[in-house]
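During the first year of the project, the team set up a workflow for recording each protein of interest as an amino acid sequence followed immediately by a discrete structure-token representation. This format lets reviewers and collaborators read both layers of information side by side without switching files. As required by the reporting guidelines, we include two representative entries from the current panel. The first entry is reproduced here exactly as it appears in our internal archive.
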Amino acid sequence: MKTHYDVVILGAGLAGLSLARQLLMNSNKNILMLEKRADLSSNRQKVGEATVQLSGYYFSKILDLEEHLLREHFLKYNLRFYWKTEGQTNDSYEHYSQSYIRNLSNVCSYQLNRNELENELLRLNQANSNFTFEAGIANLDVILSETTKPHHVSFETKNEKIELQADWVVDTTGRAKFLARRLGLTKSNSIRHGATFFWVEGLLNIEKLTGLPHLEALKHKNRNMLGHIPVWLATNHFMGEGYWFWTIPLQGKTSLGLVYDREKIPGDQVSSTEKVIEWICREFPLFARDLPHRKILDQSLYKDYSYDCRQTICADRWALSGESGRFTDPLYSPGGDLISLYNTLITDAIMTDDQDTLAIKVRLYELLMWAFYEAYVPSFAISYEALGDQECFAMKYAWELTIYFTFYVFPFINQVLTETSFVVPFLDLFAHLGVINHKLQSFITAYYRWKKKRPVEGHPPVFFDFTAFEPLKKSEELFYQVGLTPAECARMLKQQMANVERLARSIATHIYSVVLGDESLLANKQLADTISLENLQFDEEMMRKECADLDDARDSKFAKTAATFHMIFRNSDSSSLPEKPERVAEQASRVAEPG
């Protein structure tokens, strides 16, 4: 044990261990990690297994864990979403309507056994002579310096009290929020959701939750739309108004969990694993074929899990990462992304020796950290109830995923988020996008409420690939744009902003056309050009007035933006589309072309 360390990391969870790995790979800093648990190997199963593109890239490429991930964890097959189908018994997999991305992503993601990954990170860190690990500590105390002098850290082990100095202190203690509580930085947000989750023995393969014989299920006509990649490799979401239920595969076990808006579902109905299993089998009868017979390995819950933080990094050389700072919602698995983003910014700050430069960077990084977090909030605080409708969710998710690919994944894989020449114009664009995002999320939610008042007719399952939204497909092409300079990335984002706004206009136009019962609006050039994304309001009478004096000029290119989506969710005979996918293209061209 030294008397002075470059960095002291509080907590040996995923955020802290990955931060230590990133620092050890990119610097010669001496790192001390402190953990109150005496035995990490006996730890209970950890939740938060799913990664998406950004966190998948971070763990596999930035931290060089790709071989470990492919050997010990599952390669993930995107995110997939399911809805009960009106008129079906919904006790078999084939009865459910589905939305998905059928092709595997060029940027791989993984289903993580958190315990195994953290053990591997600790093993790799301990192989480096610059890393010191102290477990089973007690009475931790940190006195932060407000000058360039070192911070004071003290704690007790089994044998003695230890006092030392540190240039940087990073809190990764998770929900204990050691520094945030001490500094009075804890802050609530507008998301009031709960979660009950558990792990069962073995693989719960949802494709086998069927009444069909095995060989008949393999050649079912739905395969025309779904293909043959094992869907159990995905994070599978079973959706309802204000809630969703996940299934995530791990080696030898399956992670399951219900996430719910507390205003929609009373917590006492789902406050235990037994209650959740009973509730899920009632809401989604296919699970009754299997889930009640599984052995439960571990379980836990959060009655209210979301929160904000007033500050997460400071020029006085302290920072927060992971759940010690902010947490939004597990939908879309953003937790690993925020760890990846925060750790990258914190690593760069720690490696910045000049105090004046550090002060400039930290001001920008705090804005960036807050912006990344805040951009998620409308998705969970405004439009959560719209999860219950496949059409509304398709618009919501395609929009959010287009933003994610463009403004999160693209800059991250080009490693420009630590370049101030990029961050400044990025924040300007992101602020403008934030206004549009808030308005569009509210617009979709209002449309969902409007739809709820209309009668629902029975129909066969509907299948929809999100990449039928042309702007989303275009945004995914950015994964191949690598090695760009900060200036080139900034220019690319400005160009891509038009693609993002085109999708927003297409979504708004679709809603206008349905509410007003006028399919010709889908290709109306004047409406597409004049919709104000910053002032979107769901007012049926006002929408009618806006469209009263439109000319007949058509924009065939704009109509193609989401032509397949329009065909599937507007046509009364859309139920036949999964059986005859060629009709989608045929009818889409009819909407897109003039005449």
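The second entry, processed by the same pipeline in the following quarter, appears below.
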Amino acid sequence: MSSTLMIDGPNPTTERAQAIADAGGLENALENGVLPSPVTMSLAEALVLGLLKQGVRKYLAIFGHGSTEIGEVLRVFEAAGLTRTFQFRNEVAMAHAATALSWIYGEIPAVVTSIGPGALQAMAGSLVASSNGVGVYHLYGDETTHGEGYNMQQVPKPSQGAFGMIAGLLNRSYTLHTPEALREALRQGIATVHHPAKPGPFTMMMPINTQPQPVTLSLDALPVPAPLPPLAPADDHPFEDALALIRGASRIAIKAGGGARNYADQVRGLAERIGATVVLSPGSTGVLPDAHAQNMHVGGSKGSISGNYAMAEAELLIVIGSRAVCQSDCSGIGYPKVRDVINVNLDVDDVRHYNRTLALQGDIGAVLDRLNALIDGRPIDIDARKQAWLADCAAKKAEWHAFKQERFAVLPPIDEVWQRRVLTQPQAIKTAADFAKSVGALKLFDAGDVQANGFQIVEDDTPFETVTEAGASYMGFAASALMAGAIADTPRPAIAFTGDGSFLMNPQILVDAVAHGLKATIVIFDNRRMAAISALQTAQYGADFRTNDAVAVDYVRLGSAISGVLALNGGDTSDSLRAALDQAHAHDGLSVIHVPVYAGADPLGDMGAHGQWNVGNWVADMQIAYRDTTI
């Protein structure tokens, strides 16, 4: 082994970083001529400067032998106050935190890993960003470009750039095969991370040998995101056609997907102008206030009584910002009576997803503003037919409300595992969700039974009161995503709603939270099983199989083993859970609350499913139904 080399004399990277800091930032340094142009530096430093020029200041990192060079650059830049690097203990959890930082707080970070398994884990975690349309950079160490022999942890086969090919299948990626490739890599990164319709993760593969190689470039030439004006159809004909369809229909349902969250006022305005009901997706709660008369709540495979009724009975569907994921539209058969579709989306594929579609492609806000203005000029008569539709849907909403209240008020059954009465999942989630609302805390929902019950229960009045990772349904997301609150410039109080199985996917949050000073709460709803799959197996085949075990975990002791974590028992009643939530909220750090919850055959112990889904032994019937659909 060679000894560590000590470099004497001035360090050009240190001098440049300090000059940028003294100038008040990179743009000022470039404008004032503080930095020479062109300038020679390592590719790793040029990459960090190129991302800094785009506003990327925060790095989430697990360094290894494949990323020591960029790690050294980040050390120097952090010492100068230009960037911050946050160390993590698991690449999947780190990818989740980075996604949440961009998704919730609007700060685009970069994830840094070594070559091999770490990169592959972060790549798996990037599925959340890809599925939910969230821009984030992923920087992975990679094998050298000279092919001098296998590099440790590369894909062990004689194939060029195997990890880059894997990354390119999942997301858009670029290999920095030569230092001079940086400019194009950054240009493609901007096109992906800042995409106006579907942003996503962009992966840069960083070969071990090209990171330290010198490159001479003009920093002025490194690209920055150009602002894109909102687009809408250029002429009035599509809007006139939409108005004609709206005027001629009596039963109109608006499906507001995740893309509608930033345009809640326009969506509400359209619904009120035309007498339409609004059906939400799992990720778009709050687009209409919960109590709004035209809010039918979530519709889809899980859905709600009212949301699924509106989908099943509508004759005109107006899709706004939805990609029609299977759970959201009942695997394509959720609208059996719809004759026509008006689709408002910027993405070309999504706007034309359904047959018989009038596509209003463009920025959702710009399109809805024009449509609403046209209706204001020629108002829609909310006639007796439309009023009857609203009344029918209101009756179903009242039925859904009564259904929920029955489950919140039920005497909990005796659970087979806990051998006593414990809270049902709906009761426990309702208690925690109400508490979160009372203190203004963001609710982060994990995958599984907690998520499925959660989006039926939450009563949001504005978007982003709840973030539920329904795109990839990635177990372990919620607790990991809390870490964004320790990194964001202006964090929000937050509570992660997670099942016992999801929590154990990424429990290193217990250590990372203390290391980075996170103040947040994790509520573990423990039914000692994968209840969502158990219920699905029982519904389809009459028995569950290998979705639970007899291993008891003391989560209070587990949390208490980490210095700085407050671990609490949530008890078996709503009052005891509220008391624990109060205590956790007052704690200046991470709190973990363990809540035993019921799992079993009693239908009052669950919110139930109110739609269809193309899985298991339901597939044949679903595909026959899909064959017969007209949209």
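For the second entry, the following points were noted during internal review. Confidence is low (pLDDT under 50) at residues 1-7. The chain has three domains: 12-221, 237-395, 414-601. Both points are flagged for discussion at the upcoming steering committee meeting.
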